[in-house]
Amino acid sequence: MPVTRTTHHVKQRARRFVQDTWEAQANLSFFLLMLVLFTFVFPLTTVVEQHMNIYVDIAYSLLLVSGMAISWGRPVLFSLGMVAGLAGLITRWGVRLYPPLITLRDAVSLTAILLLVFILLVRVFERGPVSGSRVQGALAAYLLLGLGWAHSYAIINRLHPQAFTITGPQASTPAAWTYFSFITLTTVGYGDIVPAAPVARMLAMGEALTGQLYLAVLVARLVALQVSSGSESTNNHE
């Protein structure tokens, strides 16, 4: 009887370890890898350049499904992610059948991205030791912030075509808004895309502040967690 109980306990711990490792590490690693590939690598290919619209839909769908899996072990967050994710997928592909859904599609896509950022930040800022999965989650949240602001610029440009002044060969495509978003998030600002309308300027200013504050708060939180974890480890050894 004790042997059976011990074996069952070992199996439970092994299953929990595999599950936690998959949720915390493998999912985040895969999600972060897809973010980097879909945002910075694949758009450089000629195939993507020729089929940008379908590429954006496929990339967004895969990122959304992978992002929802991150919150698998948290019922409330997973339920919220499922609702936003399904709504995002339906509106994303529904536009191809009913084009007037495009404004709703962008709004739902932005909501889903912001929810994914929230899910990631819950895991990044929660108590516990600083681990590789926590750092990966912080990087993924930062990249998602850039994509979220890119969606905001696309919505504003669609509603107010004169909201931005674009110089040179740059066109108002998803790739262009992603470029402008990350340039603004990092406060570089080359000046080839300039917000002209007040609402566009406020969005750009908000993104620049978000990029700076996020990094400052993130570093402070990670340092605090590392110090707290080191103190607890020292107390346990004493």
List the helices and strands and how they pair.
Layout: H1 2-41, H2 46-50, H3 52-69, H4 75-94, H5 102-125, H6 132-159, E1 164-166, H7 174-185, E2 193-195, H8 198-237
Antiparallel strand pairs: 1-2
Helix pairs in contact: 1-3, 1-6, 3-4, 4-5, 5-6, 6-7, 6-8
Helix content bin:
over 70%
Radius of gyration: 21 Å
Helix-strand sequence: HHHHHHEHEH
Integer tally of domains: 1
Oligomeric state: single chain
Termini distance?
36 Å
Shape summary: globular
| Total E-strand runs | 2
Number of helices: 8
Structural notes for this entry:
The protein has 238 residues and is mainly alpha-helical. It has one domain (2-237). The chain is built from 8 helices and 2 strands. The protein has helices spanning 2-41, 46-50, 52-69, 75-94, 102-125, 132-159, 174-185, 198-237; strands at residues 164-166, 193-195. It has a two-stranded antiparallel ribbon with strand order 1-2. The protein is globular, with a radius of gyration of 21 Å. The model is unreliable at 17-24 (pLDDT under 50).
